[in-house]
């Protein structure tokens, strides 16, 4: 199938991803779980393999050829991330294990030194646990309040209700750009603007946004923006925290160890400059390089093309899923990413997942690490099909056939 987006040939793109050469239980692999983790193109696999085969040494401290060459490549990867999100400086890009570590870093450094009794932070109803639990853990110590910004029953973020929660007590707003559980795209620019009006900082969880849209830090004006490489067609174990330079400068370090120091005596340690102040220990060198390869790959396909292709898929999926009896879509916000989150009258989400799996269709079932939004929707779990740049309408047709089969089995 060729997408109706000119020059975006999804058949060709699928050939970049070796995983699609295999069959599952003798059926073609229908991969609809990119929101959990995306598949990897050959260029990312090659970048990782080349690095281990031909370029590998520890970085930053070695005076010899391999170490210096790989240090330069790793730092060039940081610049690739910087340019990808249009940050002002590569000092604003902290390599971390992923979004979870990035949020914990901000909670334990900025949060620990800036939040206290009488202060408030605002999260949304649809946050991933990784943007709830680190704040709760800190609240246990620092006694600030957590306010929850509501959504409506379709999953729309309620901007006016959010505005009412803001006050001079609000020190931080930590909100997702795109919900992994129900697909809502939040009005993040307005959220940031309104928070800044009361002097609050904003941390954006960009995990689910980065693979689907162009992200521009200077345009968004977020204070912190976090994401994981593995959802962006890159390796696991690497991601980034973007932070405004003047904030990062003032924040204490996160973990202590090698690389994050300038000098150490038993009496005193002085810390390294940004970004190294926040990167203790040997980093995921090859991961950073693989992540940059993934960003280059996605950029070459073009975000307008990816967006249009995924929008076509979502519209097609939304139309086709109506044909299935007893489906209830959980999350039908006005602005929606390529995620179909649903329940069925006949079967529990886990049973839906098992039946689909028998036909080689991989979807995610459960609470998607977002239990508060499941509680709000009054369901323990949903079935979630999520799209990546390599999905096509055949994938959706197979999903729909599988859902009809679920109904036949459980009727
Ligand atoms: N936020 C969102 C919206 C997510 O979807 C995820 C991953 N499911 C995370 C945060 C956490 O990302 P990671 O597990 O890569 O740290």
Secondary structure topology:
Elements (H helix, E strand, L loop, with lengths): L9 H6 L7 E2 L2 E2 L1 E2 L10 H14 L9 H20 L8 E4 L2 H16 L5 E5 L8 H10 L2 E5 L9 H7 L4 E7 L11 H10 L3 E5 L11 H4 L3 E5 L10 E5 L1 H6 L10 E4 L4 E3 L13 H17 L1 H19 L5 E3 L9 E6 L4 H10 L2 E2 L1 E3 L4 H7 L4 E5 L6 H18 L1
Parallel strand pairs: 3-15, 5-6, 5-7, 7-8, 8-9
Antiparallel strand pairs: 1-2, 4-10, 9-10, 11-12, 13-14, 14-17, 16-17
The protein binds 4'-deoxy-4'-aminopyridoxal-5'-phosphate.
Give a structural overview.
There is one protein chain. This protein is α/β, with parallel strands linked by helices and 411 residues long. It has a seven-stranded mixed sheet, with helices on both faces. Strands 13-14-17-16 form a four-stranded antiparallel sheet, with helices on one face. A two-stranded antiparallel ribbon has the order 1-2. Helix content is 40%, strand content 17%. The longest helix is centred in the N-terminal third of the chain and has 20 residues, at 65-84. The protein has two domains: 5-31 and 302-406, Alpha-Beta Complex (Aspartate Aminotransferase, domain 1); 46-299, Type I PLP-dependent aspartate aminotransferase-like (Major domain) (Aspartate Aminotransferase, domain 2), CATH 3.40.640. The radius of gyration is 22 Å and the shape is globular. α2 runs antiparallel to α10 (285-301), α3 (65-84) crosses α10 and α4 packs parallel to α5 (133-142). It starts with 9 loop residues before the first helix and ends with a helix. It binds 4'-deoxy-4'-aminopyridoxal-5'-phosphate. 4'-deoxy-4'-aminopyridoxal-5'-phosphate (PMP) is lined by residues 98-100, 128, 130, 176, 180, 205, 207-208, 228, 369. 4'-deoxy-4'-aminopyridoxal-5'-phosphate is lined by residues 98-100, 128, 130, 176, 180, 205, 207-208, 228, 369.
């Amino acid at each position: 199938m060729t997408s109706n987006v000119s020059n975006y040939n999804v058949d060709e793109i699928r050939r970049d991803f070796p995983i699609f050469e295999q069959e599952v239980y003798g059926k073609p692999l229908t991969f609809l779980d990119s929101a959990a983790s995306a598949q990897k193109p050959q260029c990312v696999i090659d970048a990782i393999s080349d690095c281990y085969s031909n370029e590998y040494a520890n970085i930053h401290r070695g005076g010899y050829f391999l170490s210096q060459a790989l240090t330069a490549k790793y730092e060039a990867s940081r610049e690739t991330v910087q340019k990808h999100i249009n940050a002002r400086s590569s000092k604003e890009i902290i390599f971390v294990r992923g979004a979870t570590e990035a949020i914990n870093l901000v909670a334990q450094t900025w949060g620990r030194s800036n939040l206290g009794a009488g202060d408030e932070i605002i999260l949304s109803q649809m946050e991933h646990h990784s943007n709830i639990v680190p704040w709760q853990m800190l609240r246990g110590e620092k006694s600030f309040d957590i306010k929850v910004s509501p959504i409506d029953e379709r999953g729309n973020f309620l901007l006016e209700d959010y505005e009412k929660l803001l006050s001079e007590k609000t020190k931080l707003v930590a909100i997702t750009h795109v919900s992994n559980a129900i697909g809502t795209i939040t009005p993040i620019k307005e959220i940031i603007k309104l928070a800044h009006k009361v002097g609050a900082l904003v941390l954006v969880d960009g995990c689910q946004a980065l693979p689907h849209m162009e992200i521009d830090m200077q345009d968004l004006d977020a204070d912190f923006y976090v994401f994981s490489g593995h959802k962006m067609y890159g390796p696991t174990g690497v991601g980034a925290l973007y932070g405004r330079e003047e904030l990062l400068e003032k924040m204490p370090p996160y973990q202590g160890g090698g690389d994050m120091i300038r000098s150490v005596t038993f009496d005193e340690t002085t810390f390294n400059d940004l970004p190294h102040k926040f990167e203790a220990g040997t980093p995921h060198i090859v991961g950073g390089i693989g992540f940059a390869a993934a960003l280059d790959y996605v950029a070459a396909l073009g975000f307008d093309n990816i967006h249009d292709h995924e929008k076509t898929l979502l519209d097609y999926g939304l139309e086709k899923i109506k044909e299935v009896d007893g489906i209830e879509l959980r999350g039908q916000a006005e602005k929606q990413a390529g995620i179909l989150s649903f329940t069925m009258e006949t079967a529990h989400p886990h049973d839906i997942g098992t039946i689909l799996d028998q036909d080689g269709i991989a979807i995610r079932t459960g609470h998607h690490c977002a239990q508060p939004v499941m509680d709000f929707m009054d369901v323990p779990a949903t079935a979630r099909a999520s799209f990546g740049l390599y999905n096509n309408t055949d994938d959706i047709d197979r999903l729909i056939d599988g859902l009809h089969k679920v109904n036949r089995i459980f009727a």
